[in-house]
User: Fold these one by one.
Assistant:
Number 1:
Amino acid sequence: MTAIHEDGEWRRLSLRMLLIHPIQEIPRALPALIGVIAAGGSGGQRGLWAALGVAIPVGLGMLRWFTTRYRVTPDRVEVERGLFNRRLLAVSRDRLRTVDASAHVLHRALGLSRVTIGTGRSDREGGGSVTLDGLTAAEAGALREMLLHRGGAGEAGAVGAREAGAAREAGAVGVGEGAAAVAAGAREAGAAAATAAGAARAGDIEIARLDSTWIRFAPFTLSGAVAVGAVAGFLANATNEADLHPSDFGPLRNVVDWLDGAPLAAAIPVLAFAAVAAVAIASTVGYVLAFWDFRLTRSPRGTLHVTRGLLTTRATTIEERRLHGVEISEPLLLRAVRGARCLAIATGLRVGRGAERGGSLLLPPAPRTEAQRVGARIVGAAEPIASPLTEHGPRARARRHTRALGGWALVTAALAVPAALNSFPAWPALVAVALLPAVVALAADRYRSLGHTVAGSRLVARSGSLARRRYILAADGIIGWNLECTFFQRRAGLVTLTATTAAGRQRYDVPDVEVEEALRVAEALLPGLLDPFLERDEAKAA
Amino acid sequence: MTRALAGWVVVGGVQVVWLLATDGHRAAHIAGLLATAVVAAAHATVMPQWRYRVHRWEVAPSAVYTRAGWLHQESRIAPISRIQTVDSERGPLEQLFGLANVTVTTASAAGPLEIHGLDRATAQRLVDELTTAAQATRGDAT
């Protein structure tokens, strides 16, 4: 067990990475390897070439260990790497925002993990982060502790007090939900007992833990759609390339024969059902792989820890000083089964794509009451999570409807005109007409979702229907304001108010709000910022 | 205006090439070309003036404000204490007319503040002023 000190001494990655780096390199070198073998001539020569093809990537992989070193000084973290082109990456320690340790199967077998240190650089995707691939788990843990836990005892006390307050308020959220509150309370008590029995770190407070019943939400996340699409695409491509026909394989032949013989009306539902089932299964598998053993804990020293994963484990540490709010996202399907997920809005932690949202996820798809409880605990107040929102008024409602119907009318016209000219089948246009009620319902739902409020010193707003999001953003995380209005918005007297921030999605919108209300919200959250400019706007409006 | 005209010249040019490259439908092609010319002329006269009337900027002791756009307008406000960088740049067109653009960025990736078409002396003064003011604040402005 190597303890890490802030002595500024250069260190190397774990020696065991000599085993992992080469294995990681081989898949990357595979296309070249195949090329080499194919071009390598015949007989004994071929074996020689193949050996060379394996040796080069393995050698390069091992070289990575010899050329990479890092050190931690009291105010900086430095990583030096590269053979011919040596690069020194230096990160100032007070700019560190997140520390993320992940370990895939190979890493875990050897007790290693890959540490990624995130800085506040958000002007570039993935910019400014430093990766140390291959520290022993103990080193990784020690590094994490050291980098993010600089706070003194005073800070710890303050966090503890806030935690207690949040727990009380979180209880209040549950009350409105009736029976759910009892369940949540029981779970909390159970979790507290578990924490007391044997937590990983003394003093950590568990906020949430994966409940195996949450897996029921997995099929509604559609996160498997990408995987299924990729596999289907790959298979189709491979069969084409290799000139294989699905009918060459026994069991598949029956399926293909049946599809050939069956009427279209029967074949389409069957295929659709198969696709839905495949996506649901893939989503569930993905959920289990990504979120197995999920735990969200708060350290009294001012950090949040997320640990999860079945094969590849991942541990993310977020400094609470950098956490400016949370986002509760409810995609339509998940909303239909009363589920939601909870995301962090933190500086230096961009909301990514995919089921894991680039590490900003605080709670995987789970019951909505649970997402709200976690959100309240993180924010430290229940009010912004549950409070009713100010509606945006009839003009915003009209705009939702004109936008939805306008788009629908354009598409329908685009489909109907060629159909009328007999140059295009008529059924797409008929389908479009049949979708009218759905479009109207969507517009109505989009308006119902729309709302905003100022809760204390936090901006709360919700919008969207297919992907409905409610975010709670603290005023001290807001940098400035953008007020945007298109031609049609201006005629309706509405603007889109955007809070710009260095955290999360970088911009948080309050769409289609009346001008006076937008100014009132901006003024309430950042008092005085607008003062020098307001007169001009009023003069212009008059 | 020059910029708008340049864009339309490209569109017109494509149509001319198309006209010359294909036989037949000559009347339709010429009608299309004329329509393009009319729209281009209208765009080139209306848009720049509209943009000029909308575009404004102001620096107060505590914040910077800009407004830009024409059909789609946007106002942006950033506190001086949150300014990360102040750039001024002159493209070929700006050099031709003796102008400069100033861009003020904050730690957020959502929209830097851009002030277009300042004369050079004003731009230089503004950059100096903002840089000095931004230096006066402590912390990393995130």
Note: Chain A touches chain B at residues 94-95, 120, 122-123, 347, 479-487, 490, 498, 500-502, 506-507, 522, 526, 528-533, 536 (CB under 8 Å).
Number 2:
Amino acid sequence: MAEAYAATLREFIAENFLFRADAEIADNQSLLDSGVMDSTGVLELIAFLEKTYGVSIADEEIVPENLDSIDNMTRYLATKLPAAA
Amino acid sequence: MRLEARLKQTAKAFGPKPAVVAGDGQMTYGELEVLSASLAATFIGTGVRSGDRIVMVLDNGWEAVVSFFACWKAGAVACPLHPTIKAEKLAAILDSTGARLVIAQGRLRATVDAAIAMAVAPPRLILVQAGTDDTGDAMGFEQALQMPAPAPLACPPADPDALALLIHTSGSTGRAKGVMLSHANVLAACQSIASYLGNSPDDTVLSVLPLSFGYGITQMVTMVLAGGTLVLEKSFAFPRKIVQRLAEVKATGFPLVPTMAALITAMKDLPPGSLPDLRYISSAAAAMPPAIGGQLQQMFPDTRLYLMYGQTECLRATYLSPDEACGRIGSVGKAIPGTDAFVIDDDGRRAAPGVVGELIVEGPHVMQGYWQDPLASALALSPIDGGRRLHTGDLFRTDAEGFLYFVSRRDDIIKTRGEKVSPQEVENALYSLPGITEAAVAGADDPIFGQVVRAYVVLAEGAVLGEREIIRHCAGLLEDYMVPKSVEFRTALPRTTTGKIRLSAEPPQTVNEGNAA
């Protein structure tokens, strides 16, 4: 399941953010530090996750530990969707 | 006096005190003084001379602060640019400024190399966090800092009227204009700001504002003037992290733009008074919606909220003291100390209360003009006794007591998340995409961003272009904040009798779905 999340996320990021950056990004790379995602991007990402996975993301969950890399998002989604994991 | 001389004074008085905190690291005033002298020596060694321009494409970090002061110590003009700038625009600015040197973030190397390759006179490159020892033609920042500063450093002529900053800002013509600010301009503005904010050595200001914008740069300079500490963060992408950081560093000052205020007030679980050390919050760069300002004050009841207005051309023009805010909803106050700001009517006379007219700014903070643009300079500035008068292009009115209220801009510049976007610049990007025959760009109202950039296009017959493709094309040419958030396809665009596309008859657009957070 984790790989399915990662594939979807990679596709979303490539489609929506990656044209802003110079290079491809690794799954463990910080989206912020690499300049791939800015503050508007975080809001777009949250909207995407909520819509795609039907999760509700609380204010206190909007932190880099959950959202700043594909690995972090995959881990976070696994905790939000334990039944599917 | 010049800016680097003020750093020297502060370093003497507060040498061991932290000047800059960024990430896990911190730098004292003593270190800032020494490192900026070393870097200045390197600049001079690479051929930088008094008055030369040095382009900076840097994230918020200690390296940027060292670079600013090194520029000034070498007598050079700092030309900071937004880190999301694209190669073609950067190349144009390298050419127009005749930059001798570029200091850039290592991760931006491909963009910067492409720009340098296009430049008529390629500048030297210094890379910050290059990520590799092999920097090729470029010099690593660490290496550039190792140059022992000659004692004494060949001092630049002590001319306070020399240029300190060349800040590029969106112009209504679609071409970025370089605002020329002298050392005296920057000092006058920052001394005035520090006086009304009451900045002192006890202050710790946390800034996420980019150091490529006037509002970010004034944070750095006011802290140096006061001997306070500047905590730099790179982005406001994770608001909760910033709120935690404010608590952690016991920040006393927090400059923000209304978009950030909207995101903070949306955090429902933040208990009121959770930042007891926060003495003040300042807001500038866009009009603060009164409802957001009110909620912000409720969340931080013991924090003083300063609503301010300025533009790059004078850094700051007005502020509303929290002591005078009661009953003056929507006002940005009065002129900052030591300056004048007033409304004129169509005949050029001071307007009566309630009459809408252009805001005029006078004082020692008014810019020298626009870089290599005498026409735009002459339109914005007019000489007055002992100085210059700035025509802001913004429409204001005053109340009976002289408090100023922003009404609208005279041109069609879009303000999104506190940053200025020229519709023409975005339209130029759209027109460069084959298949688009007509394009227009306007701001659509948005509760978080103030406005968002929206494109309206007409496609050539047979052209197949989607919204994504168009946005992607724009993103390759424009800074991130200028890229349209949405594209609307039309069969025709409304025109005026002179043939100019005019969207003003458009109904206001509403929010896109990404703003729920």
Note: Residues 59 and 370 of chain B are 25 Å apart (CA to CA).
